[in-house]
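Question (not urgent): is this output format expected?
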Amino acid sequence: MFWRLAAILAMIFINPCTKILAQERDSIFLTTGQVLIGEVRDGQMGEITIDEIVFKMMKVKLYRIKRIKTYRRFKIEMKTKEKYYGVIKESGRDGWVDIVLDHGDTVRTPIVDINLIISLEKEFFKQLHGNLSAGFSYAKSSDLGQITLSSNVKYVTKLFEYQLAASAIESIDSSKLSRDREDAGLFVAYTFKKAWFVATSISYQRNLELSIASRIQEMVGGGNKVFVKKDWQLLALSGLVFNNEKSTSGTNSGLLLEIPLIIKFDFFRYRHPDIQINSTQSLFYGLTQTGRVRYDSNTSFSWQLIRYFYFTFSPYANFDSQPPQGNSNFDFGLAVSLSYKF
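Got this back:
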């Protein structure tokens, strides 16, 4: 009786373990000979993220990968702007992969030519990636050191890209908190053709130096991935912007219409040192207020310190030819922070 009970318990224990061991997992073979086994999450700008069974979450540079194979469907976007949907398999050539498409055809390509990888079969939270930053800053508005906080989160699906960003520069003087500069916004883009997309966004801004207590801004438009190269990419978009401003004196502007021209630039280099540059340059031409021109510049330089932590240097500038109260029309500053990227 004892041995029969022991045998039954052993089968109960061994059966699920066997299923776990037999479960198919993604594999990344590095040029150093190391093999990473787990679940490939996503990839962008020269990196692939894998949830490794031993080392947990890891980011792997594409140029360090010799072979890779997955068992789930991905959206793969190339540096040539081509898009494929299928499974990534090993190629017979080091540094290359075979993309087995949904309809059965196979595309063979160098690994480093992949610009974006998005899993089409995973949970919501596993598709989130971004950064959290905290540090110190200098702003023209106060002429003193301040605290800066910022966050940027992206969520990408087969056709849509969502980006939520927020930042704040605050100072404490005589035990009072001054909210000198704030930005928060949600950007949504829908890709409908090779490099073309339509987009919409809603954002909130505050800038005491330019006499803006609050600005609610909505945009509808579209754009193009103008350049997608090995180490950098450039996007351009335009459309129509709807604004409503409240000045620091309490005056409300009513509805304001503007035409925007926005340029987004991303550069990455992972070979000693690990450097990333992200820059957004925005020009707004007023339709309701004839002759009004606004310009926003936000740039971030990041150096990797250890694994997920980066030292970030972020200069910014804002110009308004017709600020609400006509006091100052130019603001600038820079923030130095420690960033955690996930």
